Amino acid sequence: MSDFSPKSEHKFTFGLWTVGSRGADPFGSAVRPHKTPAELVYLLGEVGAYGVNFHDNDLIPIDATPAEAESIKKDFRKALADTGLVVPMATTNLFSDPIFKDGAFTSNDPKVRAYALQKTMNAIDLGVEFGAKTYVFWGGREGTETDSSKSAVEAVKRSREAMNFLCEYALDKKYGLKFALEAKPNEPRGDMYNPTTGHMLAFIPTLDHPEMVGVNPEVAHEHMSGLNFMHGVAQAWEAGKLFHIDLNDQYPGRYDQDLRFGSRDLKAAFYLVKFLEDVKYDSSRHFDAHAYRTEDFEGVKDFARGCMRTYLILKEKAAQFNADAEIQALLAEINTVDGALAPMFGKYTPEKAAALKAQAFDRAVIAGRGLKYERLDQLTIDILTGTR
């Protein structure tokens, strides 16, 4: 039987906010007790995770005194040393405190925008202190409920100004960070700016330092809009901008559920894992999800183990797909090679254009060819269900 135990080379990470979730929701209070950041690191060490990520206030409460902050960091650092976990990524909470009720970088109030920059610089310092090399930006409150309230164009400009400022800050400090922008269509705001990975990819080239900024796509955030997550990930990869990734699961058209990875749409999760493994994605595989509200902390461990186990099962299924002779023969047949047409593709030349315009195509014959996608898809299902 295959070994689906997580190992350090798999680079599985969880946020403090994921395993630390106490199960509260808009209709009910917390069902699990508070655990300190250090306790959560030991929990992740127990289940076999590679690393832990955090928002600034996941680690240090927003109103902590300097002495309290130092004590928390000391305990956290000891837990990391005891477990061998690392901190690959950090981020800033710019959405929980009431000051951010109308956004952070896009707020109409310049005092809020200035505080957001201050808070983020301090949070970047904190992340770097613990070894983070990637810094994620999720604009949780960057949006509106009514477009009467602010200019969408001005909001884009304010976002750009903030990112340019923070890029310069990281460069000035010689932190060697990469920034990753995380999109979401809505929630907690009615509508959020730059709502998809595609929007973020269009925004990045307008920055002063686009080379240090990429994306952090999340399964649930793209599925909320009914989009194909793997396609967005593939576009980011092709653009050289897949700096980080958030893995979970989601029913389309619902609130942000953050379900255990692969627990809702196993087929979509399979294609995602297959893509990441095929292209040899080598950064963290971060699980941004939460255990069900029904669980105690033993259930939280089951949740965390389940995320990693499902990924590894699907990784094995992807290898089986790639090694399956019938599947590969179908793919070879589908992706035909026509030596006569090959010289007409690629970079434009007047000669290629003339040759294409002169080429005769038998549309009826071409259209009449069956592509065997039904057979291919069923073979995929057979692999996923263990019947092949």
Task: Explain what the structure shows.
This protein has 388 residues and is α/β, with parallel strands linked by helices. The chain has two domains: 8-317, Divalent-metal-dependent TIM barrel enzymes (TIM Barrel, Alpha-Beta Barrel); 325-384, no CATH class. It is 45% helix and 9% strand. It contains 15 helices and ten strands. The protein has helices spanning 16-19, 37-47, 56-59, 66-83, 110-129, 152-172, 197-203, 219-223, 229-238, 266-278, 297-323, 325-334, 350-358, 363-367, 373-384, and strands at 12-15, 51-55, 89-91, 134-138, 143-144, 178-182, 191-192, 213-215, 246-247, 285-287. The strands form two sheets. An eight-stranded parallel beta sheet has the order 8-6-4-3-2-1-10-9. The protein has a two-stranded antiparallel sheet with strand order 5-7. Helix 9 (229-238) runs parallel beside helix 10 and helix 10 (266-278) packs across helix 11. It is globular, with a radius of gyration of 23 Å. The two termini are 16 Å apart. The mean pLDDT is 97.
